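Action item from last meeting closed. Structure (356 res):
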C-alpha cells in the first residue's frame, strides 16, 4: 500500500548508547550534588514510582518487555489512569494501553487497513473518541515527501484486539521535514504537528477535517523550539511542547500560539513524550528504553504561571528560567553546561551516523 518502502530509521550502536547514558547519569549526579537542601525546595523523585496505593495517574514504570522505545504518550479519555503508547519503529502496527497503577499493559491494539508503519512518533486522543497515531518521523531530515496519520476508535473495553484504522496521507505546504509531536485539539478536533529541527522547528496546522481519499496539507502557523512531543491541556487553552532537556507551555487562543513560559521537566535519559493527565492537574513525562519511567509533574494552577508545584517533579533537567526552580544561579549554570555537553554528544553522534 505504501508508495515508499519502510525505513528502519537511524539507531545508536550499543557502545554509543551506553556512552550517552553514562553522560546522562553523570549529568544527573552533578546536578543533584550541586543543589543544596534549601528549605521548601521540591525533592527530586525517583525516575519512576509504581503506584502501590492503587491511585491512577502516578509516576510509573512501563513493564512490558515489548515496549522498549516508547515514543509517544496520551492519556485515555475513556479509561481513567490508562495511557496509550507505541514503539518508535520496527515494531509493526501496534498500540499499547498501559495502566499507570501497575505499569502493566492491559490491552494491545493491532491496526489493520493500513500499510506498514515507518517511523511512529506521536499519539493523541481526540474529543471524537478516536486515538490518532502519527507515523511522522523522518530521521533522514525530511527525505520522504509524505507521512501518515492513523486513526482508530478508543475501545470501550480494554483487551487485546485487532481494529480497522483509517489512514490519512499528510504533506507539508513548505516541503518534507522530520517531526515527533502530534497533537489533537480537545475541542475543535483539529490536528497539529510540530517539526523537529535543531535550530527550531515549526507548528503545522492540518485541515479542519482530515480526508482519507486525498492528501492532507499541513500549513506552518508558528515557530517552536526543538520538539520531541507536545500535548494540549484538556480544556484546550494551553499547549505544552517538550524537548530533550526542557518544556514550555504556550497560551492557545483562536488557534494560534500565545505567550509562553517555562515548565519544569524531569531529566530523562532520552526524553521523548509528554501528555496531560485527563483531569489537567499534572503533566506526565515519558522516555525511551527498556522499563522506561513515566514521571508525573503536578501543575500549580494558583501560581498564575501554571508552573509545577513540586509534587513528583524533578529538580534537575528543567528549563531553569523560573525562579521557582530553586537553587542558586551557580547551580543553574552548572546544569546548563552539563546538559549542553550531553546535547553536543547526542547531536554529534547523529551527524556521524548520517555520514555513515
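Sequence:
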Amino acid at each position: 500500500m505504501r508508495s515508499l518502502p519502510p525505513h528502519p530509521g537511524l539507531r545508536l550502536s550499543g557502545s554509543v548508547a551506553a556512552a550517552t547514558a553514562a553522560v546522562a547519569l553523570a549529568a544527573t549526579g552533578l546536578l543533584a550534588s550541586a543543589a543544596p537542601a534549601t528549605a521548601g525546595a521540591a525533592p527530586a523523585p525517583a525516575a519512576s514510582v509504581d503506584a502501590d496505593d492503587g491511585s491512577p495517574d502516578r509516576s510509573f514504570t512501563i513493564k512490558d518487555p515489548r515496549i522498549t522505545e516508547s515514543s509517544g504518550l496520551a492519556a485515555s479519555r475513556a479509561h481513567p489512569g490508562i495511557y496509550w503508547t507505541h514503539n518508535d519503529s520496527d515494531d509493526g502496527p501496534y498500540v499499547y494501553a498501559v495502566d499507570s497503577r501497575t505499569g502493566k499493559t492491559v490491552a494491545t491494539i493491532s491496526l489493520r487497513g493500513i500499510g506498514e508503519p515507518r517511523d511512529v512518533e506521536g499519539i493523541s486522543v481526540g474529543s471524537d473518541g478516536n486515538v490518532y497515531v502519527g507515523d511522522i518521523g523522518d530521521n533522514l531530515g525530511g527525505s520522504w515527501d509524505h507521512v501518515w496519520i492513523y486513526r482508530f476508535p478508543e475501545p470501550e473495553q480494554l483487551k487485546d484486539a485487532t481494529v480497522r484504522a483509517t489512514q490519512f496521507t499528510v504533506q507539508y505546504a513548505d516541503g518534507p521535514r522530520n517531526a515527533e509531536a502530534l497533537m489533537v485539539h480537545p475541542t475543535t478536533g483539529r490536528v497539529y504537528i510540530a517539526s523537529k529541527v535543531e535550530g527550531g522547528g515549526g507548528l503545522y496546522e492540518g485541515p479542519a477535517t482530515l480526508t482519507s481519499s486525498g492528501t492532507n496539507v499541513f500549513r506552518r502557523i508558528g515557530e517552536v523550539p526543538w520538539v520531541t512531543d507536545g500535548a494540549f491541556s484538556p480544556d484546550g487553552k494551553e499547549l505544552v511542547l517538550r524537548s530533550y532537556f526542557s518544556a514550555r507551555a504556550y497560551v492557545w487562543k483562536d488557534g494560534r500560539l500565545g505567550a509562553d513560559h517555562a515548565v519544569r521537566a524531569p531529566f530523562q535519559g532520552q526524553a521523548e513524550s509528554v501528555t496531560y493527565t485527563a483531569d489537567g492537574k499534572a503533566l506526565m513525562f515519558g522516555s525511551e528504553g527498556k522499563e522506561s519511567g513515566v514521571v508525573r509533574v503536578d501543575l500549580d494552577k494558583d501560581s498564575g504561571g501554571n508552573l509545577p508545584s513540586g509534587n513528583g517533579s524533578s529538580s534537575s533537567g528543567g528549563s531553569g528560567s523560573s525562579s521557582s526552580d530553586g537553587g542558586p544561579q551557580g547551580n543553574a549554570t552548572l546544569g546548563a553546561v552539563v546538559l549542553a555537553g550531553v546535547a553536543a554528544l547526542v547531536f554529534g553522534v547523529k551527524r556521524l551516523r548520517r555520514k555513515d
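Note appended to the action item: DSSP finds two helices and 22 strands in the chain.
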